[in-house]
Structure to design on (66 residues):
């Protein structure tokens, strides 16, 4: 699965990603080698919206594994 960042300037390949985090109003992705501290891929107006988007990403990942 791939995802495009909010600014549409970067494509992230989720095969390498080990962590997706909602941190405050931000969504961060990380792996164990190149981005261990996490990289911001999106910022939302509220923390609640960031959590909703994280849930949407989770649902899409689960759909792809069926």
């Amino acid at each position: 699965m791939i995802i495009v960042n909010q600014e549409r300037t970067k494509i992230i390949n989720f095969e390498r990603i080990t962590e997706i985090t909602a941190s405050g109003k931000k969504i961060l992705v990380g792996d164990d080698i190149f981005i261990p501290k996490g990289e911001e891929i999106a910022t939302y107006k509220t923390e609640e919206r960031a959590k909703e988007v994280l849930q949407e990403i989770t649902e899409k990942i689960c759909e792809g594994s069926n």
In short: The longest strand covers residues 19-23. The chain has one helix and five strands. The mean pLDDT is 91. Helices lie at 47-64.
